[in-house]
Amino acid sequence: MDFIDYYKLLELDKSANQADIKKAYRKLARKYHPDLNPNDKEAQLRFQQINEANEVLSDPEKRKKYDQYGKDWQHADAYEEARKQQQASGGRAYTGGGFGGGQSGYSYSGNFDDDTFSDFFEEMFGSGARAHGSGRGRHFKGQDFNAELQLKLSDVYTSHKQTLTVNGRNIRLTIPAGVENGQTIKIKGHGGPGVQGGPKGDLYITFNIINDTKFKREKENLFSNVNLDLYTALLGGEITVDSFGGKVKLKVKPETQTGTKVKLKGKGFPKYKKENQFGDLIITYDVKMPTNLNAREKELFHKLQKLRS
Amino acid sequence: MNLEDLIPTDEICAKYRVESTFVSSLYESGLIEIITVKETQYVHCDEISVFEKLRRLHYELDINLEGLEAIQHLLEQVRQLQQKNLELKNRLNLYE
Predict the structure, then answer these.
(1) Chain B residues whose beta carbon lies within 8 Å of the beta carbon of residue A36
(2) What is the nearest CA distance from B43 to chain A, expressed in angstroms?
(3) Which of A107, A306, A308, B4 has the most CB atoms around it within 10 Å of its CB?
(4) Is A94's pLDDT higher than 60?
(5) What is the DSSP string of A96-123?
(6) E strand spans, A192-236
(7) Contact B17 A113 (CB under 8 A)
(8) How far apart are CA B46 and CA B34, in angstroms?
(9) Structure confidence by residue, pLDDT tens digits, A198-231
(10) Does the distance separating the beta carbons of A218 and B79 come in below 8 Å?
């Protein structure tokens, strides 16, 4: 891990006393606590760093080593050991206390015991199981897992089965038709194993849906633009348009203007978890003018122009 | 309601080392639901995550009950806004 200036992180001076550290930690913890910043990964990271800084600076022994060795403070023991060996020939012995480096966790000077530490630490940093029940001998629910799944829009038009690998385990799940971009679904019992016979945690999957079609989607409604030639727009007629489920024949009213919208009921996207229910397809007509007119066509258009004026 | 899904408040207090008054205060403020079955009070296991969050905020960040109420209310607003934001982002794709 890169060196982090814990004093800077807690916005403290090197001469700060324990009360200052506690105060600074409280202030920043209130700002970046993950419970107060849902879905904010940056705040979560910052909170982790603040905890680490607090863990070191609020412990006089760790702080002393941090002040002395700076970025190498975690190897203080090794330095001390080497120094001790060097000095052994001179008859001097190092009497400093042991320091178990490497544990980066949540330390707090409030009313906490190991249980609370563990519960909080595990939940914040996602290792191990999280208590879901309570009491001695009660079972505990396993850790919840989060995953992101990228799918094409055309994939979620129908319910389909897909195999996912989460934490080395293959999970075969049914993806319901009509899931939305950014939507999170819960797969019960596919998280971490429970403790003391408790239920497994849940798996939360967030969908990232890429549109690979010419349609635009808003919830269960689809939108598309359809080009219309001048004559069909003016005189009306029948056209064939693409819908998600296939081609659809459509009557065009005479004198249809560009920008006219037509709603094709039930030709949109499937409604999420509502079997055989679909949204609408909204078509916007785009009338295309003829180009490369020949002399005869020009003459006829002039005649039409004269008729209108 | 399945009794297996209910956790006695006494056990919650023992496990989380909180006073029973804290649990009842959360109930009185409408922050958690307490179910009474045969004179024993329970919290549904689905509510434990909410309880854990409120406990953390109260004991770790020194936030009092009024603060918890305000936070819970604001977090619900944040949740709704995040949902709305997602919907609008998806809608914006229509114009891109």
Answers:
(1) 57, 71, 75
(2) 10
(3) A107
(4) no
(5) PPP--TT------SSS--HHHHHHHHHH
(6) 203-210, 216-218, 221-229
(7) yes
(8) 12
(9) 778 888 888 999 999 999 999 899 999 999 999 9
(10) no
- Are A135 and B14 in contact (CB < 8 Å)? yes
Report pLDDT for A188. Answer: 84
- ipTM at complex level: 0.78
**Class of CATH domain A145-210:** mainly beta
Whether residues B57 and A132 touch (CB distance < 8 A) is answered with no
Nearest partner of A143 among A213, A193, A211, A209, judged by Cα? A193
Q: What is the pLDDT of residue A89?
A: 52
Given a contact cutoff of 8 angstroms between Cβ atoms, the answer to whether A133 and A141 are in contact is yes
**What is the domain partition of chain A in residue ranges?**
6-94+107-125, 145-210, 216-308
Phi, psi of A190 (to 5 degrees): -110, 20
Query: Which of B10, B17, B52, B82 is the best residue to mutate to test the A interface, defined by the most A CB atoms within 10 Å of its own CB?
Result: B52
pLDDT tens by residue, A251-307: 999 999 999 999 999 999 999 999 889 999 999 999 999 999 999 999 999 999 999
Please tell me which of the candidates B16, B61, B79 has its beta carbon nearest to residue A30.
B61
Question: A18-32 vs A41-57: helix axis angle to the nearest 10?
Answer: 170
Q: Which CATH number fits domain B3-95: 3.90.78.10, 1.20.1050.10, 3.65.10.10, 1.10.1660.10?
A: 1.10.1660.10
- Evaluate whether A6-94+107-125 and A216-308 have a shared fold: no
Judge whether A190 and A178 are in contact, CB under 8 Å.
no
Q: Which of A38, A115, A135 shows the shortest C-beta gap to B78? A: A38
pTM across the whole model = 0.55
Question: Shortest CB distance from A38 goes to which of B48, B75, B86?
Answer: B75
The DSSP 8-state label assigned to residue B74 in this structure reads H
pLDDT 10s digits, B58-68: 998 889 999 99
Does the beta-carbon distance from B45 to A141 stay under 8 Å?
Answer: yes
Does B44 touch chain A if contact means CB atoms closer than 8 Å?
no
Q: According to CATH, what is the number of the domain A216-308?
A: 2.60.260.20
- In terms of CA atoms, which chain B residue is nearest residue A108? B60
